[in-house]
Amino acid sequence: MTGFASPDVPAYVTYALVLVFGTIVAAHTVNRLLGSQPDRWAFAPTWLVFLVHAILPAALFWFLDYTGALNDTSIFAALLVAFGYRQIFAGGVQGITMAGQTPALWKPFEAWVNQIVDRIGDRNRMYIERFSDAVQAHIAESPERFKDFKSLVLTHSNDAAAVGKALANLPSTGDDAADRRQQIGLMWMDLRQSRAKLYGWLLYQQHIVPWGRYWLWLSKGRAKLFTIAIVGTLVVIVAGSVIWLTRDDIGGTRQHIAWLQYHKWRFLKANATERDRWRSREYLMGELRAWGDSTLPPLPAVVAAVAQAHERESKAADRLRAAKAGTPEWMQAKADADVAAMALQSALQTERRALSAKTLLASLVRELRFEGLARARAVEIIGLLVHCHSPALNAAYVPELIEVLRMQNEVVRRDIRNVLLALNADYPNAKFPTELEKWEPRKEETPADLDRMVRHSHTWWSEVSRKRQ
Amino acid sequence: MPEPASISKEALQVLRALRDSSRDGYNLCSETGLSQDELRKAVIELGKMISFKGDLRPSGIGDTYFMLMPSAYGYADMVIGSQYKRLF
After folding, report:
1. What global pTM score does this model have?
2. At residue A11, does pLDDT exceed 70?
3. Potential cystine with A276: which of A7, A272, A346, A389 (Cβ 3.0-4.6 Å)?
4. Is the Cβ–Cβ distance between A409 and A377 less than 8 Å?
5. What does residue A244 show for φ and ψ, rounded to 5 degrees?
6. pLDDT under 50: residue ranges of chain B
């Protein structure tokens, strides 16, 4: 499936496809599995089965990509998993093989569904019994209702004479209320036998059972209420998430972080397709190239500056609203508001850079410290940093990059030394240390050798940083 | 999977009704046209193919809840399919 020709689209599109179609297939699957259970959507376990069936294709899609059975940017693979995940589990799809004994996981899953059906059966019976008991008690409360119920039973009975005879032959308990309940019980059984499907409707029509109780217990009312509650909750969650991600500047920052995390994942993913990695590289290069020239303050200072700029902008806007249009005070307030708005935008830009440094640069450099990192991955990361170089951007990661020189992989050490040499061009008057320039990293170098090179590098960096300031 | 066994017409009617929907004894009798005693015999004949909540005594069979487990759907379909002609 990895070599299968298919349009290569961003992973968020394929995962969304798997989730949407997986949800449709899940609803169909639950209706098929629990199809013989009336009011099945009125039970929490049914929703749990639905949820698991809806999430399962997405989890399987991720797992198959992780094991290299398919690519998670393939649109055809996404549709195949969404619609045919059961066949994949059963090993019935040529070209997609589940790793190890994972197909056997389907068996306990089926046993779990059987257990849930069993529990739903229990509850259905319990609800019918509760309904019967509640209605019989309701009838016993009023002589009028009892009379109406008796008429209803005798009208619809398959053998009214036998019912009348059985009622007459019922032995008395000596307690009027108990006698009445026995009579109701006998007539109730006859009505259930004679009009098994319609008895609820008949009771409602005769005003013996109120509409609410009939609708709730015998007209799928519980299932409807449950469905409305769950769909309503989902709508609130989705709407809340959209607001959370789009509301003013804070929402924009959250979106920015989410996109950075997504593209970082795709860029560092070991088995990403070339096109997918290219998409993420383009995005990240765009981010890093827009870095600007000013040096980045620490993140807490940036956050405080944004809060301060927000406050100033808010106060300036208040003053502008309070002033009478056209007056000198209004002109001054307008100028102040414009300045405050610009200052806020500038603070937000700085915050965006600070977040990129924290979310992206630190992770990329940390990845280089991994001993088993493939050369191709290291070249990708280093290439991204060098292609976007600028004195302001360099300042955000070079000290951490120098520390990577301590790692044992001599090829990556050489690459990083070359990066430092290349970055030296950003500082026209700086002199790159000769010992570092002539250094040829070797496998057998001792930690002391490496420490010396790290110290040389830090000295060089302190020098260029000081000159820049 | 064992070959579908030959079952009585009453048991087949019960199986078809439960394949369509789980239901209590009153509804099952109404759907199949069987008496409560015939229903009891049919349920015993079907054995482990169906599951029930309650008891099979004449006083309680109407309130007993009968169902077919999803794991038995395939076998039930095979039995119903193989005995389909017998209903006509």
Report:
1. 0.77
2. yes
3. A272
4. no
5. -60, -35
6. 1-2
Residue A386 in contact with residue A380, Cβ under 8 Å? Answer: no
DSSP H or E stretch at residue A244: helix A221-246
Q: Spell out the domains of chain B, with CATH numbers in brackets.
A: 9-83 (1.10.10.10)
The H or E element spanning position B51 is strand B50-53
Hey, are the CB atoms on B21 and A117 less than 8 Å from each other? Answer: no
Tokens of A275: 């096109």
| Chain centroid, CA A281 distance in Å | 24
Backbone angles phi, psi at A305, to 5 degrees: -65, -40
ipTM score above 0.85: no
C-alpha neighbours within 13 Å on the C-beta side of residue B47: 5
Q: How far is residue A182's CA from residue A176's CA, in Å, rounded to a whole number?
A: 10
Q: Which of A348, A347, A360 is nearest to A285 (CA)?
A: A360
From the CB of residue A299, how many other CB atoms can be counted at a distance below 10 Å?
Answer: 13
Kindly state the DSSP code that residue A178 receives in the 8-state scheme: H
Q: Which residue of A has its CA nearest to B15?
A: A36
Interval A351-406: pLDDT, tens:
888 888 888 888 899 998 888 888 888 899 999 989 988 888 888 899 999 999 98
Strands across the sheet with B65-68, in order?
B23-24, B65-68, B50-53
The shortest CB-CB distance from B69 to any of A114, A132, A192 is to A114
Rounded to whole angstroms, the Cα distance separating A399 from A408 reads: 18
- Choose the mutation target among B14, B16, B19, B26 for the interface with A, i.e. most A CBs under 10 Å: B26
